[in-house]
Amino acid sequence: MARTVFCQLLQKEADGLDFQLYPGELGKRIFDNISKEAWGQWQAKQTMLINEKKLNMMNVDDRKVIEQAMVEFLFEGKDVVIEGYTPPAK
């Protein structure tokens, strides 16, 4: 049976992640409060951010940039701003 969570990003009950995908307290918070759908949205944003800013995930400072953007996106309702990227019109 699928695990459901009240997703903080989508503000609705949705399928939760199958397992904790991020380490530590933040990972637990994501696991408990973020749906698969919202995590998928973040993954797309993260890829754009890494490519746009040419981030290296082996670099501690770059990982901090990504983590900060992740917290802002998932929990604070702030969209990821990618220079020169225009989202497709709805």
UniProtKB/TrEMBL annotation:
<dbReference type="Pfam" id="PF04362">
    <property type="entry name" value="Iron_traffic"/>
</dbReference>
<dbReference type="GO" id="GO:0034599">
    <property type="term" value="P:cellular response to oxidative stress"/>
</dbReference>
<comment type="function">
    <text>Could be a mediator in iron transactions between iron acquisition and iron-requiring processes, such as synthesis and/or repair of Fe-S clusters in biosynthetic enzymes. Necessary to maintain high levels of aconitase under oxidative stress.</text>
</comment>
<dbReference type="GO" id="GO:0005829">
    <property type="term" value="C:cytosol"/>
</dbReference>
<dbReference type="InterPro" id="IPR036766">
    <property type="entry name" value="Fe_traffick_prot_YggX_sf"/>
</dbReference>
<protein>
    <recommendedName>
        <fullName>Probable Fe(2+)-trafficking protein</fullName>
    </recommendedName>
</protein>
<dbReference type="GO" id="GO:0005506">
    <property type="term" value="F:iron ion binding"/>
</dbReference>
<dbReference type="InterPro" id="IPR007457">
    <property type="entry name" value="Fe_traffick_prot_YggX"/>
</dbReference>
<keyword id="KW-0408">Iron</keyword>
<comment type="similarity">
    <text>Belongs to the Fe(2+)-trafficking protein family.</text>
</comment>
